[in-house]
Amino acid sequence: MTDLIRMERISKFYGKVQALDDVSFSVREKEIVGLLGDNGAGKSTLIKILSGAVPYTTGEIHIRGKKVDIRSTTDAIANGIETIYQDSALVTQLSIARNLFLGREPLTGPRFLNRMDTVTMNRVAGELLRRVGITKNIPTTTPISALSGGERQAVAIARAMYFDSDLIILDEPTNNLGVAETRGVLNFVRSARDRGHSCIFIAHNIHHVFQVVDRIVVLRRGTVVADDIDPKKTSIEDVELIITGMTDEELAGSPVH
Predict the structure, then answer these.
(1) pLDDT winner (highest mean) among 48-57, 161-170, 246-255
(2) Each residue's pLDDT tens digit, 177-234
(3) According to the model, what pLDDT value does residue 182 have?
(4) What does DSSP say about strands 115-116 and 215-220: parallel, antiparallel, or unpaired?
């Protein structure tokens, strides 16, 4: 299996603080990679670099073996990378359908009139919401401001589902979601791989990670401490030990809170 994305020796400084130290990270074609680590491990910084939201200090990024320069979110999208953050930016005053197609609206009639195809937008939006597990009959004309946190996250997921990119990055996609919505997100991740796409999946809920990923990478204090963990051959407990850097003896002696 060949690499779709390879980040080589990536370092990132915020002033004198080093958030990432010589990190190499790859995602293969049709692979779901779980990126794990405690708070402050560098996960968010790494994906923000890959998505163009944060510039890296040193290192290189390669897509299908070709070196690319990703310095903005526009660069990332142009290179087939779509990112869904935990706090995905949605325009709260606009409708669900408008947010799903924001900046990429389909047009109808003569192109010089620049008239949006609202019928198509609403139809597709309704189908996508059902695919991510929203069973309530929410009109696609509903403004984002009227939705719950979980419903907003589902809209962001639905947007990535429609604009299938080579790589979809999901940062805490199941956070604040109900059972049905969580199931829809996990099913989406699996179906994305089946359709030939790759994903990076970040979640504090390690059980969700184990349900969908092919490989697990662990960051600790800005460095990669494990990059080839097979969830089918490794227990959740073992991965938790790697994340914390604690031995079984240290964990046994830790106070219970």
Answers:
(1) 48-57
(2) 778 778 878 887 888 888 888 999 998 899 999 999 999 999 999 999 999 999 999 9
(3) 83
(4) unpaired
Q: What token pair was written down for 150?
A: 């979980």
Contact 178, 207 (CB under 8 A): no
> How far, CA to CA in Å, does 234 sit from each of 30, 98, 110, 210?
21, 43, 57, 10
Look at residue 1 in the predicted model and tell me its pLDDT: 63
Q: Which of 169, 167, 148, 168 is nearest to 90 (CA)?
A: 148
Going from the C-alpha of 51 to that of each of 34, 84, 169, 225, the distances in angstroms are 16, 10, 8, 22
> Two tokens at 142?
């509903």
The residue that leads in pLDDT, 133 or 107, is 107
Amino acid of residue 99: N
Burial class (CB in 10 A: 0-12, 13-18, 19+), 232: exposed
| Residue-range domains of the chain with CATH | 3-91+168-252 (3.40.50.300)
Is residue 64 a contact partner of residue 243, using CB atoms and an 8 Å limit?
no
